[in-house]
Amino acid sequence: MADPATVRTDARRHHDPQVRGFASDNYAGAHPEVLAALALANGGHQVAYGEDDYTEHLQRVMHSHFGPTAEAFPVFNGTGANVLALQALTDRWGAVICAESAHINVDEGGAPERMGGLKLLTVPTPDGKLTPELIDQQAYGWDDEHRAMPQVVSITQNTELGTVYTPDEIRAVCDHAHERGMKVHLDGARIANAAASLDVPMRTFTNTVGVDVLSFGGTKNGALFGEAVVVLDPDSVRAMKHLRKLSMQLASKMRFVSVQLEALLAKDLWLRNARHANAMAQRLAEGVRAVDGVEILHPVQANAVFARLPHAVTERLQKRFRFYFWDEKAGDVRWMCAFDTREDDVDAFLLALKEEMARQ
Questions:
Q1: Minimal CA–CA distance to 164: which of 112, 119, 205?
Q2: Which of 100, 138, 258, 282 is deepest in the core (most CB within 10 A)?
Q3: Phi and psi dihedrals of 110, rounded to 5?
Q4: Which distant-in-sequence residues (6+ apart) come within 8 Å of 292 by Cβ?
Q5: How far apart are CA 96 and CA 26, in angstroms?
Q6: What is the pTM (predicted TM-score) of this model?
Q7: Are 175 and 207 in contact (CB under 8 A)?
Q8: Bond preceding residue 158 cis, omega within 30 of 0
Q9: Contact of 285 with 350, CB cutoff 8 Å
Q10: Using CA atoms in the order 286, 290, 295, 299, what is the torsion angle rounded to 10 degrees?
């Protein structure tokens, strides 16, 4: 065992800050303006557990985006936001209808079901988007005690496949769900990218068209950590503060979550970051389309590019840039761009892709 006296304890950099990949927008660091906001909120004492000045001001910022009845409940992470939101919208016997590809079904380790105590009723979708017709595949059996009761429709904007719902598409989902006595949750982990893609305010495809509760994402858009559950219809939920604590999502020093969301939303940082990430994905897609033998699988509408290429090419390319298989058996991959992705990063990746395809 090393002598404690010889172990360095000073902070030092353990990575090359010039290296960027295309694996996930979670790989990116925090935006400098967010870090500056954290420093601004530091020092002195503020009341704990959300009674601080920063969380109070965040409510006014959220009102400017989602209307005067919106109430934000800052939480630690996206899975926590989703589980908390879905718990607030369901009874113990309730179920949630979602796309088969939805993050709550595929990438949250069973947390909605194991921790939230609810049932997911999934529907296969060609593009990640639910429609009224697809919802009806699972929207039945409300009086059948042998079946979990459908109470919520959960959609993701933008979807796990990088596609974006139009406001009219979300309105159709909300109207259909509400007509059947169900509520609507929107997983907005990348809501900023969707708004940038549609070039509309976020309210245009959330509270304006009938979404009841929103999971608002900050981390993928430049925050260090932290998301929020935003209640858009106060009558749709109950006991949110109690549920947040019960779900282990109540931050004692909440000002450091709230000030990050304020930094993103008070001006246009959220939109600048999202527009840039989307633009880099478009640059990447345009370059990929010029490479013979590589197929783009879905419309590139936000900051993700899904493609299919030879398995051996992917494995060699992964040694040069970080990214993931989406469906390894089919040869499908996902390339993500972030707020800090540079044109030079995209161009270097495209050059490497061309080189590896030429070897193939």
A1: 205
A2: 258
A3: 80, 10
A4: 357
A5: 26
A6: 0.95
A7: no
A8: yes
A9: no
A10: 20
Digit-by-digit pLDDT tens for the chain (360 residues) are: 556 555 556 788 899 999 999 999 999 999 999 999 999 999 999 999 999 999 999 999 999 999 999 999 999 999 999 999 999 999 999 999 999 999 999 999 999 999 999 999 999 999 999 999 999 999 999 999 999 999 999 999 999 999 999 999 999 999 999 999 999 999 999 999 999 999 999 999 999 999 999 999 999 999 999 999 999 999 999 899 999 999 999 999 999 999 999 999 999 999 999 999 999 999 999 999 999 999 999 999 999 999 999 999 999 999 999 999 999 999 999 999 999 999 999 999 999 999 999 997
Asked if residue 154 lies in contact with residue 104, where contact means CB atoms within 8 angstroms, the answer is yes
Interatomic CA distance for residues 88 and 240, integer angstroms: 7
Task: Kindly report the length of the chain.
Answer: 360
CA distance 145 to 67: 38
Using DSSP's 3-state secondary structure scheme, residue 117 falls into coil
Residue 203 DSSP code: G
Place of tokens 């921790």: 115
CA atoms within 13 A on the CB side of 120: 26
DSSP state of 202: G
Angle ∠(344,336,311) on CA atoms, nearest 5: 95
Token look-up 């109430």 returns 71
**Cα–Cα distance between 135 and 176 in angstroms, integer?**
9
94-99/149-156 β-pairing: parallel
Rounded to an integer, what distance in angstroms lies between the CA atom of residue 303 and that of residue 338? 7
Q: What span, in angstroms and rounded, lies between the C-alpha atoms of 349 and 144? A: 54
Record the tokens describing residue 112, joined without a space.
């909605």
Point out which residues pair with 165 in neighbouring strands: none
Token couple for 152: 């919520």
**What's the rounded Cα separation, in Å, for the pair 130 and 128?**
7
DSSP structure string for 225-281: S-EEEEES-GGG---HHHHHHHTT---TTTHHHHHHHHHHHSSSHHHHHHHHHHHHH
d(CA 175, CA 184): 9
Closest CA to 321 of 279, 351, 290, 296: 351
